[in-house]
Amino acid sequence: AQSVTQPDIHITVSEGASLELRCNYSYGATPYLFWYVQSPGQGLQLLLKYFSGDTLVQGIKGFEAEFKRSQSSFNLRKPSVHWSDAAEYFCAVGALSNTGKLIFGQGTTLQVKP
Amino acid sequence: KAGVTQTPRYLIKTRGQQVTLSCSPISGHRSVSWYQQTPGQGLQFLFEYFSETQRNKGNFPGRFSGRQFSNSRSEMNVSTLELGDSALYLCASSLDGGAGTGELFFGEGSRLTVL
What is the assigned CATH class of domain A3-113? Predict the structure, then answer.
């Protein structure tokens, strides 16, 4: 079955500290992988995506993610977190043949301590 | 470039009623997808429309339906509302449903409360 797992429901980090949000996927086809961020009352904003090629992808707002096929993981990282990064983060997987459909993880809520 | 516009942003209905939500995609985008977001089930795919045709469908009952117009604007309808239909309904547009660019652009959602 196709699925995305984000093991951490809540994460709290101090401002200026590094961040890693975990994501594991199970998908039969060649996956397209995404990280989205959602602020309260808002829609989803794409942070970055991986289709193929270099397994380390850079996104907006200083985020990066690394695709590890052997571990079925696509973890999101940021070297130094800002208070404005507090939000909910979603990992998602899609496929070329599954138009319009992304399978999302349950999300990780990030709290940033001053 | 204007983003994805969803209307209404908030609405309250009672059980048994029906509701229609509207989505205007980004200009030039031909694909519109709909998602339901709830605290318990998370984000779940409802359906995708491309060039006025439903091209992909999630696992929701027939009470959930949609359509797309020639200008790519889309509507979704939920009939015979149930309490469990209370959710944030998100619309996403893309050039081709993500098959090529892989990127969906989301609107801010329509928050439906069923009493």
Answer: mainly beta
From the list B42, B45, B90, the residue facing A101 with the nearest CB is: B45
With a cut of 50, which residues of chain B have pLDDT below it? Answer: none
Q: Which residue does chain A place closest to B100, by CA atoms?
A: A96
Question: In whole angstroms, what is the distance from residue B47 CA to residue B29 CA?
Answer: 16
CB-CB: which of A51, A94, A106 is closest to B42? A106
Q: State the pLDDT at residue B98.
A: 60
B85, B112 Cβ separation under 8 angstroms: yes
Closest residue of B to A51, CA-based? B102
CA angle A105, A45, A22 (to 5 degrees): 35
- Bond into B8 cis (ω within 30): yes
The domains of chain A are located at 3-113
Tell me the pLDDT tens digit for each residue of B63-88.
999 999 999 999 999 999 999 999 99
